[in-house]
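Reviewers asked in the last cycle whether our approach scales beyond single polypeptides. To address this, we selected a multi-component target totalling 208 residues and predicted its structure end to end. The input consisted of the following lines:
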Amino acid sequence: MIANTPKTPYYYAVIFTSIRSNIEEDYTSTAQKMTDLAQKQKGFLGVESAKEEIGITVSYWESLEAIKNWKMNVAHTEARNKGRSTWYKNFKVRIAKVERDYEF
Amino acid sequence: MIANTPKTPYYYAVIFTSIRSNIEEDYTSTAQKMTDLAQKQKGFLGVESAKEEIGITVSYWESLEAIKNWKMNVAHTEARNKGRSTWYKNFKVRIAKVERDYEF
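The resulting structure, written as structure tokens, was:
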């Protein structure tokens, strides 16, 4: 649910915002596979996701190196390519350093 | 839809993740008011929002000062207090500096 991330500073957030095409073609199963696979990566801290008109997935990571390693993962690269060509009309990825947080 | 933010570095993201209580009581109208009001603040750059099991709202800002000024806004403070007492079971706010972004 809400990701249980460590104390700030510093951990990193990858904010992935997307608008889907209307093509399903393995989208749901691949999205689930990528979530499962991300959780096995070194430096993965948690993920939060919701979708209405736009989809927002925020994943949290220990370091920029962990984010880079996940980006270079072969299955993830294939999924991203399929995302560009098929599943998404638009998307945006923002990599951000979390400086402060608070909760209730 | 997907927020049209300026070049990195540096702008800031406020990642607000929440789980609602089952109490409606002006929630929807207040959420809309806060979105409208945020957009009038100095330094506001854009907002993205989606809700399923959890709600994720990411707002983008020019500076930490702009984020602080919005936090101190009286109507926003009242809404946050009502959020804590009534509308949310849990929430988490993360303030992060966007270091890189790319889009498609």
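Chain B has a mean pLDDT of 95. We regard this as preliminary and will revisit it once experimental data from Aim 1 are available.
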